[in-house]
């Protein structure tokens, strides 16, 4: 997987406003590191800072907690930031662009490419961001979820935004064949054709192609079955072994049909 760009300016700042529980701060640090985000800023955490409960729930993302900066106000926390996003699920009596996390990620990547620093605000666990904090934002991030239940915990919200930011710069194939050291490389056409020839010859000997005029169609169907499987060299070797065992197996006399 690709890593985020090295320039610190390219990574969004995560600002936790009045977070209540140390455990939640630690889980946010874990979610951040999952997504390559490292700059955490805390605004007046309720239980003070540092908080030992945060380390226990960070699951190894300790460096983010050690480097976290603490501020007395949201205004101070976003100092030096060019663009601010506020996460909230509640409607506000103010006119602001509302974007999904995916759209916000695209915009943040574009802003980073222009050398602009970006911050994302997350409110306290119970009440979320207040209107004064939202006023500082250039846009609101709202997660499209079940309209009947949109409640997220703090770490989930951070992970959703962070994940979309990571995905916006990720080029991992949507689907791929993962090969192990023992599975070998994908079988080449020559190896597959050799197997097809042996298999079809054995089927001929066994009388499988009982209707000669249908043989070409049936052969194509059989080849398509194996072609879709994306066989490796090791798997083709295994099929050769199975075929050899079946060929050597003593033929049993066929009884009358019941």
UniProtKB/TrEMBL annotation:
<keyword id="KW-0949">S-adenosyl-L-methionine</keyword>
<keyword id="KW-0963">Cytoplasm</keyword>
<comment type="function">
    <text>Catalyzes the formation of 2'O-methylated cytidine (Cm32) or 2'O-methylated uridine (Um32) at position 32 in tRNA.</text>
</comment>
<keyword id="KW-0489">Methyltransferase</keyword>
<dbReference type="Pfam" id="PF00588">
    <property type="entry name" value="SpoU_methylase"/>
</dbReference>
<feature type="domain" description="tRNA/rRNA methyltransferase SpoU type">
    <location>
        <begin position="13"/>
        <end position="163"/>
    </location>
</feature>
<dbReference type="InterPro" id="IPR001537">
    <property type="entry name" value="SpoU_MeTrfase"/>
</dbReference>
<dbReference type="InterPro" id="IPR029028">
    <property type="entry name" value="Alpha/beta_knot_MTases"/>
</dbReference>
<comment type="subunit">
    <text>Homodimer.</text>
</comment>
<dbReference type="InterPro" id="IPR004384">
    <property type="entry name" value="RNA_MeTrfase_TrmJ/LasT"/>
</dbReference>
<keyword id="KW-0808">Transferase</keyword>
<keyword id="KW-0819">tRNA processing</keyword>
<dbReference type="InterPro" id="IPR029026">
    <property type="entry name" value="tRNA_m1G_MTases_N"/>
</dbReference>
<protein>
    <recommendedName>
        <fullName>tRNA (cytidine/uridine-2'-O-)-methyltransferase TrmJ</fullName>
        <ecNumber>2.1.1.200</ecNumber>
    </recommendedName>
</protein>
<dbReference type="GO" id="GO:0160206">
    <property type="term" value="F:tRNA (cytidine(32)/uridine(32)-2'-O)-methyltransferase activity"/>
</dbReference>
<comment type="similarity">
    <text>Belongs to the class IV-like SAM-binding methyltransferase superfamily. RNA methyltransferase TrmH family.</text>
</comment>
<dbReference type="GO" id="GO:0005829">
    <property type="term" value="C:cytosol"/>
</dbReference>
<dbReference type="GO" id="GO:0003723">
    <property type="term" value="F:RNA binding"/>
</dbReference>
<dbReference type="GO" id="GO:0106339">
    <property type="term" value="F:tRNA (cytidine(32)-2'-O)-methyltransferase activity"/>
</dbReference>
<dbReference type="GO" id="GO:0002128">
    <property type="term" value="P:tRNA nucleoside ribose methylation"/>
</dbReference>
């Amino acid at each position: 997987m690709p890593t985020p760009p090295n320039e610190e300016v390219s990574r969004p700042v995560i600002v936790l406003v009045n977070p209540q529980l140390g455990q939640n701060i630690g889980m946010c640090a874990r979610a951040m590191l999952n997504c390559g985000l490292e700059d955490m800023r805390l605004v007046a955490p309720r239980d003070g800072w540092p908080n030992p409960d945060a380390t226990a729930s960070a699951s190894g993302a300790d460096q983010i907690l050690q480097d976290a900066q603490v501020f007395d106000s949201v205004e101070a926390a976003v100092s030096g930031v060019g663009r601010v996003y506020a996460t909230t699920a509640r409607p506000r009596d103010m006119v602001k662009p509302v974007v999904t996390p995916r759209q916000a990620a695209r915009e943040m990547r574009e802003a980073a490419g222009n050398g602009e620093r970006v911050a994302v605000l997350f409110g306290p666990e119970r009440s979320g961001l207040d209107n004064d904090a939202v006023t500082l934002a250039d846009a609101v991030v709202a997660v499209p979820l079940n309209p009947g239940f949109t409640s997220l915990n703090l770490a989930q919200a951070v992970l959703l935004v962070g994940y979309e930011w990571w995905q916006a710069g990720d080029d991992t194939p949507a689907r791929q064949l993962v090969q192990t050291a023992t599975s070998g490389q994908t079988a080449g056409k020559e190896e597959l054709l050799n197997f097809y020839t042996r298999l079809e010859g054995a089927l001929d000997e066994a009388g499988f192609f009982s209707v000669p005029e249908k043989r070409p169609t049936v052969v194509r169907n059989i080849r398509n079955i194996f072609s879709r499987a994306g066989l490796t060299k090791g798997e083709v070797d295994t099929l050769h072994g199975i075929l050899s065992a079946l060929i050597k197996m003593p033929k049993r006399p066929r009884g009358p049909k019941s």
